[in-house]
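Open question from group meeting: does this chain pack into something compact, or does most of it stay loose? Before anyone orders reagents, we agreed to write out a predicted structure and look at it together. Recording both the input and the output here so the notebook holds the full record.
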Amino acid sequence: MTYSNPRRLTRIAALGVVAALAAAAGAGLEAHAAAPSTAAVGSTAPASSYRGSGAGSQSVAGHGYGGWGGRYGYDGSGGAGGSGGSDGAAAETPALQPATQATAAQTVGVVDILTTVDYGRAEAAGTGIVLTSNGRVLTNNHVIDGATSITAVDLNTGRRYGATVVGDSPTNDVAVLQLKGASGLNVAPLGDSDTVAVGQSVTGVGNASNAPGTAAATGKVTALGQSITATDEDSTDAEQVTGLIRTSTDIQPGDSGGPLLSSSGQVVGMDTAAATDPRTGATVAGYAIPIDHAVAVADQIVAGVSSSTIQQGVPAFLGVQLLPGESTTIQGVIPDTAAARLGLAPGDTITEIGGQAVSSQPEVETALTVRRPGQQVSVGWVDATGTAHHGTVTLGAGPAA
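Structure tokens returned:
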């Protein structure tokens, strides 16, 4: 099987537009490796592994744009994307029913989410669930991961809204957005995921392939309590999401963050991942986060909780790309960022941030992670000639993490 978090990603490279089918939520795709994990409930087959695309630190078709400062201390390297292992339970699933056009009732409280990634180098899209009439929206973290701007389209009215990240939880694959200037939105009819049972009919709704209209994929619940181990394509940075609902719905790229509906039309889950047959590319299983769990995480985010699994807002952003390895030498500087205003340039080596000496990329990342956008920070560096410099700059807001 090949596994993916259903999102599309299109990167605009110097040589043109590069598109790759992938592992995350919405409109231009990035593939990621999958590894076996905890056995499925009631099955001897292993559950599958997934990871959403980290557009700020991943690459497509060999174009490694890397992480640009802020929480990112990465080297800009990356591959074209991975493939999966096997999932016996999924392989036994019969051909899924093709998706149909969602009804007006099925799109109540649903938005399309469109993002710009890596400061214009990429575009992505997914789906969101409206929680409040003033524009609080629930989606997957991997839908907005790496986004530098976010737009949401209300499927009930067609109105477009700019959106900000309230906070997210990468390990739970949950994020909360706030639509700017929104009021009077239709709210999604949330149900009780504790009532979900194997064999129950369900429908996954979302922005499949970012195509016109909204897709509705019907199927049944095939397993509960699934554990998924997510890794980058090089099998590093593993994260685990537990308690997922496995279904026979034909979840497609773009559906991530969309509602999984019960037969009565209530939201019982949030579409998150899909397993596909590498021989045909056909989806053989869909996965969803139980809505009770997703909303519980969202409530913590809205309450302002910050922890090892929940982060508020977006990270502070310096705007540099460091050379591969442990070096703090700058490979690139994004225009109109704090680094550019400070006069940092490729070939410079950062030696100090906020009065703290730094000599490795993790130290740079740590020094920036503890700060917030809008905060002033001192930076020391040595240029290519060996001359030392020092200055103070206001940090910007980085890509969603």
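Observations to bring back to the group:
The first strand starts at residue 2 and ends at 4.
The chain has a mean pLDDT of 75.
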